[in-house]
Design goal:
- By secondary structure, the protein is α/β, with parallel strands linked by helices.
- The chain folds into 2 domains: 269 residues, 3 Solenoid (Pectate Lyase C-like); 67 residues, no CATH class.
- The protein has 7 helices and 27 strands.
- The strands form 5 sheets. The protein has an 8-stranded parallel sheet with strand order 1-2-5-8-11-14-17-20, with helices on one face.
- Helix 2 links the parallel strand 1 and strand 2.
- The longest helix is centred in the C-terminal third of the chain and has 32 residues.
- The N and C termini lie far apart (91 Å).
Length: 366
């Protein structure tokens, strides 16, 4: 009997030692890497740290501006030291490419300003279970773009001054929550062939908050109503805050008779679906605080520049059409005839498409 007890005790000790060894081995395997402009004991670029990292490592980035197209292809956590997107900024070395491209699983990217890409500020392609948090993404074609990406959490970001705020293409089962999606020149959110995504506790304020598309009905626009402070300091988590640039958005004009911070009626999403618990501004100062984080003047300046560019593009085309119609067949100049004989082409397709698109853009904005 005593021998049996002794063997059991010895076995338990061996198991305990093995468990502790596994814990220490796991802890030792994960390393912290440092990135900073001065490279004191670390790396001068974020990409160099990513290339050197092993799966599970954490990369801490000191304040500064990092001009690089960042490609994250392994499971790492990347944090700005300051947790402040205003002083730790990523700008693409090649603006024609996305500033940050994530292709791995379980990546964390948090605390950065990301800007000035002609493609996406942050691109997740084929990525799963990633956490994109507390970033300020602006001045890009797409603020955040998900392509064939699933089960990611886009949480607490400011997405502003982009052509499209957040775009999902063939991306399912993602959670989009706690974001400021405001003052984008096109739609705040656009969905293509994407379903089972959930959007809740976001602040929407764009000329077009959600692009009109039937697939919108295949997604969910609120969480289960839960007693917890929302992003406009109301007492419940539920749906989203729906504002517009004229101050006449649904959340700005809805009724909340029971004063619970939730609009009494659902909000119908363009294209299909509805937000069954849209947020009501029960605490108006909270909305003002969120607005202070945004730049309405920069949006107005951007729109003015776009309209000016559209007018400059459309006017020559309109003048050309009028002149041709006025001239008629009987008033062709020698130069016109000579050009025809030499096979001179009509205005290029690219120019025509640009002018047509510009006219359409301007029409939508007026």
């Amino acid at each position: 009997m005593e021998n049996t007890k002794g063997k059991d005790s010895k076995a338990l000790k061996i198991i305990a030692v093995l468990i502790l060894a596994a814990i220490f081995t796991s802890s030792a395997a994960a390393a912290n890497l440092n990135v900073g402009p001065e490279a004191e004991g670390g790396y001068t670029t974020i990409q160099a740290a990513v290339d050197a990292a092993n799966a599970g490592d954490t990369i801490f980035v000191s304040p500064g501006t990092y001009v690089e197209n960042l490609k994250i292809d392994k499971q790492v956590r990347i944090w700005s030291d300051s947790r402040n997107p205003e002083n730790t900024v990523v700008k693409p070395a090649d603006p024609a490419e996305s500033a940050v491209e994530i292709t791995a699983e379980r990546v964390t990217f948090s605390g950065f300003g990301v800007e000035n890409s002609e493609k996406a500020g942050i691109l997740l392609t084929g990525a799963r279970n990633c956490y994109i948090n507390n970033n300020r993404v602006q001045n890009s074609e797409y603020g955040i773009l998900l392509q064939n990406a699933e089960n990611n959490n886009i949480n607490g970001n400011t997405v502003t001054l982009n052509e499209v705020g957040i775009m999902l293409e063939g991306s399912n089962s993602n959670t989009i929550q706690n974001n400021l999606i405001a003052y984008n020149y096109g739609p705040g959110v656009s969905l293509e062939e994407s379903s089972r995504n959930i959007f809740f506790n976001n602040y929407f304020k764009n000329a077009e908050n959600v692009e009109d598309n039937a697939v919108n009905a295949d997604n969910t626009w609120q969480s289960t109503l839960t007693v917890k402070s929302n992003l406009i300091k109301g007492p419940y988590l539920g749906g989203n805050y729906w504002a517009d640039l004229e101050g006449t958005g649904y959340s700005e004009t809805c009724i909340d008779e029971n004063s619970n911070g939730i609009c009494d009626a659902s909000y119908n999403i363009t294209g299909g679906g509805s937000d069954k618990s849209p947020l009501f501004p029960k605490v108006p100062s909270a909305v003002k605080a969120l607005e202070s984080k945004l730049d309405a003047e920069a949006y107005k300046e951007g729109m003015a520049a776009r309209e000016e560019a559209v007018n400059e593009t459309v006017a020559p085309v309109e003048r050309g059409v009028e002149e041709n119609e006025t001239a008629g067949e009987g008033n062709k100049t020698n130069e016109t005839e000579a050009s025809k004989e030499k096979g001179a082409p009509a205005p290029g397709l690219g120019f025509t498409v640009l002018a047509t698109g510009a006219a359409y853009f301007l029409k939508r904005r007026r």
